[in-house]
Amino acid sequence: MASATDSSTAPSSALRRSLGFRDLVVYGLLFIAPMAPVGVFGTLDAKSHGAVALVYLVATVAMAFTAFSYAQMVRVAPQAGSVFTYARKGLGEGPGLIAGWMAMLDYLLIPAVAYLFSGIAMHALVPSVSRWVWTALAVVITTALNLWGVRAAARVGFAVLALEIVVLLVFLVSAVTVLVQDGARRGWLSPLTGDGSLGFSLAAVLGAVSVAVLSYLGFDAIASFAEEVTGGSARVARAVLFCLALTGVLFLAQTYLAALLTPVSSAELAADPAAQGPAFYDSVEASVGVWLHDLVAVSKAIGAAFAALAGQAAAGRLLFAMGRERRLPRALSRTWDGTPRAALLVAATVTLVAAVWAARRDDGLDHLVSVVDVGALVAFTLLHASVVGWFVVKRQGGEPVWWKHLVVPVLGAAVTVAVIVEASPAAQIVGAVWLLVGLGVLFAQRGRPAPADEGSGGPPP
Fold it and tell me: Which of 7, 163, 268, 330 is exposed most, by the fewest CB atoms within 10 A?
């Protein structure tokens, strides 16, 4: 007879397979957010000289290289841990630790930014409650959902995602209606060619792309749930590619229409940085009405909190995998009823501290935003190197297919390195310091063997 400790609620190191294709797409879209360009629309419009839709078209193609490399490696190692696991397979234990370490910076801080966005939006709607209170409340609610289980969180997330998509559709229909009735404020091709106020510049477009690719961070989180999906690793690969393609279409459509509705030129936005942040909202309010402005704002407030939910869940899986491989404390690899609650609580605690600290400072958002992306980009670069290492150098999986095992990952790495180079000095410094700390952890663990069986392969797909 099984004892009480053998029940489904006893701690173990196994994740429960309960996610389908739709659930994976929900997590990816939640993390990215279907209306992610709203906050950076004005900045990108100014940087690209009005060719903001072209920026997102190029950014989608650029990030497709990274999505394709994820699709290759998730078939090789369908386990929790994502790029940490892939780099271990393709490059070795040391690069694997560094890849996981750098991804950890991204996975722990991006939710903090999203929670802060939610707190700021709610404070604007209910100013009598401090924004740090709203921020902390968002952390508590979404953490409770994640502790409830990945399947339950996916169901609630699906409802929130449906709301965001409905709001996006309302905007698209309203924008098209206004354009049909009143015409465009700019030339119909200007979102792809520039509005002419500053002249078309390929360098300006590529500079804006280096910012726009950050809107896509989150689709990679899908790979973190590889041990919890039914139907095998091919389903995860399809979800990664589908999620990126869908968000690319949504981003292109909304920025194209918003650019046509914008009452000011890109040159005017470039000359007035303070107007760049609310540029999307100002365009909506001026062309459609304040009701849509408020609807989009409420949707962003709720959506940001659930983007953080998906990010927190991915962070928990990364900490779980690194704990299972004894690269972080082993306690992080414990699960209860198939949920890595210890890892989730650690991720939630770090995120809560960072988000509340930022919410209590006037410059807190600037500090967080400036450092969240470098970790992911370094991890993406190691992901591309892992594809080359596994398929070309180690010749695993048969004879390599040169275009997808060498050409695509090399191009993808070139994109991520270029974005790192274009990052702000503050982000580069924080990334370098975090990398040095990771190298210190690696040095302290030198000679420590990885588990031969336990955790290294995870449950079969």
Answer: 7
